[in-house]
Structure formats: structure tokens, C-alpha cells
Design a protein that fits this description.
single chain; 134 residues; mainly alpha; elongated
Length: 134
Amino acid sequence: MSHALIAPMLAHVGLAGFLYVLLTLARAPSIWGIGRRADGSNPWAEVEPRISANLSNQFEWPLLFYVACLLLIQAGVQSPLATWLAWGFIGGRLAHSLVQIGTGNVRLRGLVFTLNFLAALGLWALVPQLYLHG
């Protein structure tokens, strides 16, 4: 059985996997000595904590995204609105990662997070009508 919500869920898994690779590369100079500067320092030392924090963020609010998607899948919902909200969530997660890692701009990151928050809440708004009324 194919379901439209699987693709955005897989996209988020891909994002998390990419962040693990990026974090490994950023830590390589400190851990394995690969890519160290001539003075022995890690050229990625400033960005490494932001990558690590962003990776941790992928296991906080997204948990609620996954639960809502799984409940909708289990109920057999094939809603264009649910699909649109799920992809909106993924777009917001990607933007959140770019802002957190690339800029460290907390205000902008908060605005981008609001997109994720609203998209996940939108998915959850679809759940009660399935399980409470039908």
C-alpha cells in the first residue's frame, strides 16, 4: 500500500542522516586529526555545536509530526491537505536547519520554527475527526 505521507517522513529521515554525516565531518579534525589546520585547530569548531544542536532538534518536535502521520496513515487518510502540511513541515525543517547551522540567527530560526509548529498542529487537527467522530 502506497501512502503520500511516507515520502515526507522519508525526507526527514534523509535530513537527519545528512546531519549525522555533516556532524561527523565537522568533528573529524578534532577526533581523527583529518582536516586540522596547520596550528592543530579544527576549522569547523565554530559551526560544530550548531550542527549538533540542530541534529538534536530533529528528535524533538518532529516526534509529534511522525505520530500524527502514522495515525493518519493507520486510519487510511489520503488527504491532499495532510500531504501539503507534511511537506510544509519538511520545508520548514530544512529551512530551520539552514538558518540554525548557517547563520545562528535565533530570531529568524524562531520564525522558521513557527512554520514547523503550525504544520504539525495542522496534521494533529486532522486526527481527532478520524478517531473521535468516525
